[in-house]
């Protein structure tokens, strides 16, 4: 796969504060890359550097093989969709879509062709004569996407485009954006703090923290084999359970030191098994309960502490030998506070992290 975007040793500082440091990234042609992280991690800053809205301190940005580090945004061959719709209220939808093209002196017949194509792809043909004030939030965001789409560029940048919408509208537009990518096959970089958006949209996810990329991989790789404890805790809802304890690499056994000890045979180590203090991670959805626990290699008993019915499933907070553990049960299973129920899991689904470095073992 040829690269659409290459970022080399990128650094951005505001005075003494370094926001991005020695950041390297390659985005393949036609790839959908999601930049994911908590507020302040640098994901929107990185997107603005690619767009040319921020001048970098050091490093290079290449788009379609051209060094655009110091090029104006209009000369980078990108279309950008912001969190705010930023539509001209006095113009119709059609006027908003054509405004940039007219300023760029695109021929009238070409403008008409691009508007018709964008309106068809985004299903906004009936809205073209309306003004933004007469549109819903979802319709306005479609128009904002359309304004980027009519530029007929190779790279689209999305800066949290759905964060101002309600939950149902976000889910609907998420599907629309995925379909848009499948139709156009353009390179797309999408910034979000919502892991559901990241997991469902991305070809690859870049998890960011402190201006650096912690892990860059396919969503399933990040979910199943997080490279460190931060990534493991950030991905997943409810969040991964963590237990602090001692690992005996030779016997491949884990001991919390509080009466809870079990085998981790079946876990795939990155290198040779080590002995020492570790963090053990276990996702709530990987814990089996009730009769399903009988088939699991590791089995124990849990004391139910709190129950959260969610409809399709029930989230259970429990204690195992004083260790707090969250897991999911079928929503039709009866469970009450104070119940003692069997649980089990497969060590192959665990994550083990070195206590000091917090890197995956």
From TrEMBL:
Annotated keywords: ATP-binding, Nucleotide-binding, Transport
Transmembrane regions listed in the UniProt entry: none
Residue intervals of the ABC transporter domain: 5-235
InterPro entries on file: AAA+_ATPase, ABC_transporter-like_ATP-bd, ABC_transporter-like_CS, ABC_transpr_MalK-like, ABC_transpr_MalK/UgpC-like, Mo/tungstate-bd_C_term_dom, NA-bd_OB-fold, P-loop_NTPase
GO molecular function: ATP binding
PANTHER family: MALTODEXTRIN IMPORT ATP-BINDING PROTEIN MSMX (PTHR43875), OSMOPROTECTIVE COMPOUNDS UPTAKE ATP-BINDING PROTEIN GGTA (PTHR43875:SF1)
NCBIfam families for the chain: PRK11650.1
Family designation: Belongs to the ABC transporter superfamily.
Protein's name in the database: Sn-glycerol-3-phosphate ABC transporter ATP-binding protein UgpC
Organism: Roseinatronobacter alkalisoli
